[in-house]
Structure prediction request, 408 residues.
Amino acid sequence: MPAVKSGHFRFMARTKDFDEAEVLQKAMRLFWSKGYNGTSMQDLVEGLGISRSSLYDTFGDKHQLYLKALETYQQNYGTQLCALTTKADSAKIAVKQLLQLVVDDLLGDNQRKGCFMVNAGIEMANHDTDVNQLLCTSEQQLEQAFLKVIQRGQANGEINPAKDALALGRFLNNTVKGLQVSVKSTSDRAFFDDIIKTALTVLD
Amino acid sequence: MPAVKSGHFRFMARTKDFDEAEVLQKAMRLFWSKGYNGTSMQDLVEGLGISRSSLYDTFGDKHQLYLKALETYQQNYGTQLCALTTKADSAKIAVKQLLQLVVDDLLGDNQRKGCFMVNAGIEMANHDTDVNQLLCTSEQQLEQAFLKVIQRGQANGEINPAKDALALGRFLNNTVKGLQVSVKSTSDRAFFDDIIKTALTVLD
DNA sequence: TAAATAATGGAACGATTGTTCCGTTATTGT
DNA sequence: ACAATAACGGAACAATCGTTCCATTATTTA
Prediction:
């Protein structure tokens, strides 16, 4: 793979005909939609548009590809969510924007795939150590982001400092996970607005 | 199968060597733990303790068995939850007991299987009409139960009648689903107590 | 242009998938 | 005891599973 080996220049072979990141996005969408066990290598070969051998040469095997797709999702989506908690000046508004973004994303996808990390956790976490670890890390990350934004709100007087910030953070994180499940049975926006509206009252 | 046919008595054959309901419970636990795609017919034959042909003769095929297991779960568990909303005199206490029962059940299972209906919805609802329907029915049932208990609380002065009862019900239902996902990444009871404690404040 | 190297496509692997079939066994009502 | 019926165990099915292998093709540096 590398052009340099032991300090000597070597011959180079042909370059990949596909964009690895692009293929990874496609794999992510496939696993996200149909799950690990529901997605066959045949599905992947057809869906990614590359050959079996290129698939194995580039990503190892099915399980490694799945993990990489899940990591990619977390780096894209999880990080985006966490960043949103520091954007608005008002902590309450930041939280509200986060919840609304979650719902917008959920309803914006007409496949109703939900959250890849939640889906993976449900399908795999109990039997797959690697997925379990990714899930717990992701979980910690969002819980911490919620904790921080609430503490910020308490510091600037928006939120009652007597409240348990960690408990509030855990609660909000739990609400997000509920939303990501609820989209499997409803696509009624009023339904989600009801939940967001109610959840936000815990900050008053 | 039936002993009577066209009004005439017919000969009877040997009876089943197994208890159908008992086998169904075992199937339920298997699908619940490993999902539909993660559970093979071989797993079922070994886990249920009956032969392949008995399995097919009794339950049809894998998909029908899965649906029956899911229905059984809903009739056992979902109905139990809904019933709990009418048990206590106080609406607030009823809701609190429900949430605590959910968490007790989740943590009482050292396999951390979560909620079969949620798991099924995540894995199947998008691609399986039958599962989708079971999920939506179950969803409606619990939402209605929550709505009723909240209206009861508003009627007896426990809960502010100015609040949106339907929104509160949807919120609580959403919280339950969050808990059923959260158990995949945590088994810390304090974590769940934080969430319950916070969620219940919306009723004040 | 030639040598070197890796990507590619496709055939092929054994294992496992869900399902069917059949000969045997057991239990029933007459 | 007999005839009738269904449950049973296990072999066998084609299809698909994830994976490996190899000859071919394409691209690079010297």
Notes: Chain A touches chain B through 48 residues (CB under 8 Å). Residues 1, 10-17, 50-54, 57-58 of chain A lie near DNA strand C (CB under 10 Å from a C1'). The beta strands of chain A are 4-5, 8-9. The first helix of chain A runs from residue 20 to 34.
